[in-house]
Amino acid sequence: MGFLICACLLQLLFLGSSPAAAQSPSPARALDAMLQDYAYRAFVRPHTGIVYNGTVPADLAGVAVSGLRLRSGSLRRKGFSDYFEFSFPPGVIVQPYVERVVLVYHNLGELSEKYYPLPGYTYLSPILGLLVYDAANLSAVGLSELSIVASGSPISVSFSNVRAVPSGSPAPQCVWFDLDGVPQFRGLEANNVCATYRRGHFSIVVNSSDVAPAPGPSGAIAPLIPTDGGRNKGSSDAWKIAVGVVGGVIALGLLALLLVCFVRYKREKKMEVMERNAEVGETLRMAQVGRSQAPVALGTRTKPVIESEYVA
Ligand SMILES: *[C@@H]1O[C@H](CO)[C@@H](O)[C@H](O)[C@H]1NC(C)=O
Ligand SMILES: *[C@@H]1O[C@H](CO)[C@@H](O)[C@H](O)[C@H]1NC(C)=O
Ligand SMILES: *[C@@H]1O[C@H](CO)[C@@H](O)[C@H](O)[C@H]1NC(C)=O
């Protein structure tokens, strides 16, 4: 009984803590996984070298996703020009090597800011994504991304429909996000053209911050309480500290409980396994004894019935 409560609590705590933990993917990574699925669903008896547009559900309206299946060897030797805004020169190598790849194209449209918020900057173009997956199983979901390296000249991204730079702004820049979501900036290659040697998400931005938004003060206990945009600082500080202390105490208590539960759970699990092993051993032994008798018993039971029925 106590064990059951403990197990429930344990599960609750793990479930409850998982969204905050590092294991849960960011919204952008969750979107990558979804779009991989939608791109692969577009492949019905696909030909290599042909672009297939995926369809997305209503909550992703405005997002475009497409898939292009290529042989890695062909990509390396010949490249591929005009995959929407992307152009691959010869020399693009897939790592680790697989025979065929799917190049998945994203255009996040109006949802660019939502999935790739970039305070202090203004997007002049939607975020475009280029991710690479193994094409071996076209019904696979949750695939992990492959890397690509442009070993010769870079892959070019020629943005279309770039908004005009707001007057008085500094020069626009290319921004590149790898899978970790960390932005990296570099200059444009040409008007509306960015260059990349790798996969990821790309856009053109301008620095729009005359006043850089200061990061909020973060105490040691800040992660435990949801951070609120503090308006009236003076009165809310004492309140914050009180909540922090209470939260800390509760968290400590829960942690201790969790530890106790975990130890008990482990012990219980071990006992269970030992018991099950003992049971399995027993049933096996019984089955062995039974099997030597079974044919005799079955034969004598069924035969007379069938024969008498056919004769009658
Ligand atoms: C795929 O979508 C693009 C626009 O996003 C369009 O230009 C192209 O014609 C579509 N291709 C197919 C095969 O429907
Ligand atoms: C392909 O992936 C699907 C979904 O993950 C899986 O059920 C199926 O067994 C896979 N097929 C092969 C041939 O690996
Ligand atoms: C934007 O430009 C301003 C002034 O040139 C600079 O101080 C600031 O650090 C830049 N902001 C970002 C986020 O790079």
TrEMBL record:
Keyword Zinc-finger tagged: no
Keywords: Membrane, Signal, Transmembrane, Transmembrane helix
Superkingdom, taxonomy of origin: Eukaryota
Transmembrane portions of the chain: 241-265
Protein name: Malectin-like domain-containing protein
Signal peptide range: 1-22
Keyword Signal carried by entry: yes
